[in-house]
Amino acid sequence: MPSNVAAGPGRLESSGRSQAATVVGLGTCAYDILAITPRMPAFDDVHMTPLTGLVHDGGGQVSTALVALARLGVRTGYLGVVGGDLEGHFLVDQFVRAGVDTARLRLQAERRTNVCLLLVEESTGRRAILCQRRVAAGDLVLDQSDRDYIQAAAVLHLDGQFMPAAIQAAQWAREAGGKVCFDGNHPRAGLEELLSLVNWLVVAEPFPSAYTGLSDPDEAARALFALGAEVLVITQGERGCRVWTEGPTYHAPGFPVHVVDTTGAGDAFHGGFIYGMLQGWDPTRVATFANAVAAVNCQTLGGRRGLPSLAEVEALLEAHSR
Fold first, then answer.
1. What residues form DSSP beta bridges with 179?
2. What is the mean pLDDT for each group of 10 consecutive residues in the chain (322 residues)?
3. 3-state secondary structure of 85
4. Cα-atom radius of gyration of the chain, to the nearest Å?
5. DSSP per-residue string spanning 27-61
6. How far apart are CA 101 and CA 30, in angstroms?
7. Hey, how many other C-beta atoms are within 10 angstroms of the C-beta on 85?
8. Looking at residue 177, what DSSP letter applies?
């Protein structure tokens, strides 16, 4: 049992002490089972579909972004709930090995951990995702120690999981002068209140139209940016991303790599984006760096197993600058 797991009502006891984190993440954490196959199976197919790879890995938007940042050398901490089952212990141990602080993580014996099964198409790296969500939005209740932990950080990263806690955490972060980053992939209840507190809005390509109801991508992006974020980034997979600021928009192209699995690419991008913003770089440079982090990660099966070091990202950037 790791020694730095948060103690309190409904939690496992701990002797660990909270460490100040530069980036605190509050959001999704899941146990991933990933299988790579030359073809997607069909129901009732009499022929067994072969697997060419099978791995177990940590997953979840915010939690994977935190591991990405830790690999890049940033002190990070996770705030959330996992169950006291084998999957939960696996995820806590993985955080500890990656250097992510778990002092405010609730490992609760009475709960079960989110589990996802991902089928990856060998020729393209595309995925089909099946998830059993075992942790509910209201399972995370914040306390004064969480407030202190959040307000000591420079950045709070959210994905909308544990929405009531996420809104409270964002209010605390903004009160202390911290930046709030949000990873958006689909609309959900409570998002209007949360988005009003976001500084850095980094969303998947379908999100602006899905959230605003506007079918024109540019019009939807402008409406989303008008909600008050300092910067809006729309990720576009292998095509890279678009960056919206008060000035002109900018397209940062993706990097051509051999794609094994796109799992965690967006999460890796968020880690790279936050890293660049912490350096004070121009958003266009930040976007290029984040694209590179995601590209390296796509070359390995699993959302976290291929997350790069800073040297690996710089090597890719150098190779494509010649």
1. 155
2. 44 47 96 93 86 94 98 98 96 97 95 94 89 92 97 97 97 98 93 96 96 95 95 95 91 94 94 98 95 96 95 95 76
3. coil
4. 19
5. S--EEEEEEEESS---TT-SSPPP-SEEEEEEE-H
6. 17
7. 16
8. T
């990070």: which residue's tokens? 76
The sign of the dihedral angle between the CA atoms of 246, 156, 99, 67 is negative
Question: What is d(CA 271, CA 61) in angstroms, rounded to the nearest whole number?
Answer: 10
**Per-residue confidence (pLDDT) for residue 1, from 0 to 100:** 40
End-to-end CA distance of the chain: 48
Residue pair 78/100 in contact by the 8 Å Cβ criterion: yes
- Whether 171 contacts 194, CB under 8 Å: no
| Environment class of 18 (CB within 10 Å of its CB; exposed 0-12, middle 13-18, buried 19+) | middle
Give the separation between CA 147 and CA 141, rounded to whole angstroms: 11
Instruction: Indicate the residue type of 256.
Output: P
Contact 84, 68 (CB under 8 A): no
Contact 26, 182 (CB under 8 A): no
2 token code pair: 């790791």
Residue 193, φ and ψ in degrees, nearest 5? -70, -40
| Domain boundaries 23-319, corresponding CATH code | 3.40.1190.20
The reported pLDDT for the residue numbered 5 is 54
What whole-number distance in Å separates Cα of residue 122 and Cα of residue 126? 8
Spatial CA neighbour of 109 closest among 90, 127, 84, 87: 84
pLDDT at 18: 53
Coil/strand/helix, residue 298 = coil
- From residue 66, alpha-carbon distances to 101, 196, 319 in Å are 10, 23, 26
